[in-house]
Amino acid sequence: MRHLHTLSRLGLLVVASLAVSALPAFATSMLHRNIVDLIEISELIVTGTVVNVSDGFANGVPYTEVTVEVEESLKGNVQGVYSFRQFGLLEPRSVGNGLRFVGVSPDGWPKFEAGEEVMLFLYKQAPETGLRTTVGLFQGKFQKANKQYENGIRNRGLFRGVSAQSGLLTPAEERMLEAKGGPVRAATLTSFVRKAVRGRWVEQRKLQRVD
Questions:
Q1: Which backbone phi and psi does 155 adopt, to 5 degrees?
Q2: Buried b / exposed e across 7-18, counting CB within 10 Å, b at 16+?
Q3: For 21, what's the count of Cα atoms within 13 Å in the CB-facing half-sphere?
Q4: Who has greater pLDDT, 149 or 27?
Q5: DSSP states of 116-154 as a string?
Q6: C-alpha distances in angstroms, 178 versus 31, 139, 147, 164, 210?
Q7: In this structure, are residues 91 and 104 in contact, taking their beta carbons and an 8 Å threshold?
Q8: Which residues is 178 bridged to in the sheet?
Q9: From CA 139, how far away is CA 104, in angstroms rounded?
């Protein structure tokens, strides 16, 4: 019985390892996501501070659990301390019987550290595993520094192909949408996303992708 349990666990690890090996290729060819996509596709959009990062296995699937103290829920309804799990471990680990699992979060997956101030655009949870991550992977995680937000590709293309209805934006938001990359004022991006979600700008095509 113990031998069967070991084989079963080994089988799950092999499947997970194969999944990991296939993911970096996907990550390097991922779709470009601009701010319209991020708002439209996300189930949850939150700002806050990462307070804990841990990892483990659930039903043989490796995960990294990220816990955020939510400052504001811009889309969806989460308050207080919120945790989600994305695929992969923080680092390789021993799983006993001389086995070592090397399935860390793949290239392109966002990395998290306690103490980071972030804005996160989060996909829906996967129905079978409960895992989720940010829309566009590192494109959907914004880290705050010096009162500015920047994602994993330095906001390149974040506002490319974005069209907003005339008179909808403040002068600061108009200038933000003209940026080709680099950090943007956190207060301006937060206000923009908040108004876009509450006003249903994307659904009503007041804000849309035109490229």
A1: 65, 15
A2: eebeebbeebee
A3: 8
A4: 149
A5: -EEEEEEPPPPTTT----BTTGGGGEEEEETTEEE-TTT
A6: 21, 18, 19, 12, 15
A7: yes
A8: none
A9: 19
Q: How many CA atoms lie within 13 A of 145 on its CB side?
A: 8
The structure tokens 């600061």 sit at 172
Asked which of 8-22, 46-60, 156-170, 174-188 is least confident by mean pLDDT, the reply is 8-22
CA 113 – CA 111 distance, rounded (Å): 7
CB proximity list for 138: less than 8 A, separation 6 or greater: 108, 109, 110, 151, 152, 153
Residue 7 token pair: 């084989």
**Whether 119 contacts 47, CB under 8 Å:** yes
82 neighbors 70 (Cβ within 8 angstroms): yes
Inter-CA distances, 26 with 21, 62, 106, 152, 188, Å: 10, 18, 10, 16, 32
Q: Which two tokens stand for residue 151?
A: 């994602």
Is 2's pLDDT higher than 90?
no
In whole angstroms, what is the distance from residue 23 CA to residue 2 CA?
A: 32
Strand, coil or helix: 31: coil
Contact criterion met (CB below 8 Å) for 103 and 16 = yes
Backbone phi, then psi, for 139, in 5-degree steps?
A: -75, -25
pLDDT of 101 > 80? The answer is: no
Identify which of 61, 121, 51, 124 has the alpha carbon closest to the alpha carbon of residue 83: 51
**pLDDT score recorded for residue 112:** 97
Query: What is the C-alpha separation between 22 and 27, in angstroms, rounded?
Result: 9
**pTM value > 0.70:** yes
